[in-house]
Write a structure and sequence with these properties.
Layout lengths: L7 E4 L4 E4 L6 E6 L5 H11 L6 E6 L7 H5 L1 H5 L8 E6 L2 E2 L6 H9 L2
Helix pairs in contact: 1-4
Length: 112
């Protein structure tokens, strides 16, 4: 199986979930500590908007050896910028520049 940003699989003992990420028009990866205020602000920005065809991934890069991180190439390449939570927004195989700003993230996800 090829592991890249457009396709990944997660397996456990009770379920087999195969998600084709390319079927979503908007992919958003937020890199940061799940409990930190900056990460919560970026997540809140995404969750405030009705985005029916989006996939949102939270990458906590402090956790080495993560099952999903090892199998999803994009999570091995994204990182926090300026030691703050950072959002990566991709659409149609093109990604915007990473941002730490809630205002800039909102512009990117709304296409403004």
């Amino acid at each position: 199986m090829q592991h890249n940003f457009t396709r990944f699989s997660c397996y456990d003992t009770t379920a087999n979930v195969d998600v084709n990420v390319s079927s979503f028009s908007l992919q958003i990866v937020i890199v940061g500590d799940p409990g930190s205020d900056d990460t919560k602000s970026l997540l809140g920005c995404v969750r405030r908007h009705f985005l029916p065809n989006q996939v949102l991934l939270l990458a906590d890069n402090r956790a080495p050896g993560s099952y999903v991180k090892e199998r999803l190439a994009i999570l091995r390449t994204v990182e926090k910028k300026e030691d703050e939570a950072t959002a990566y927004v991709c659409e149609n195989f093109t990604c915007s520049l990473p941002t730490n700003s809630v205002e800039e993230l909102e512009k990117q996800i709304l296409g403004k």
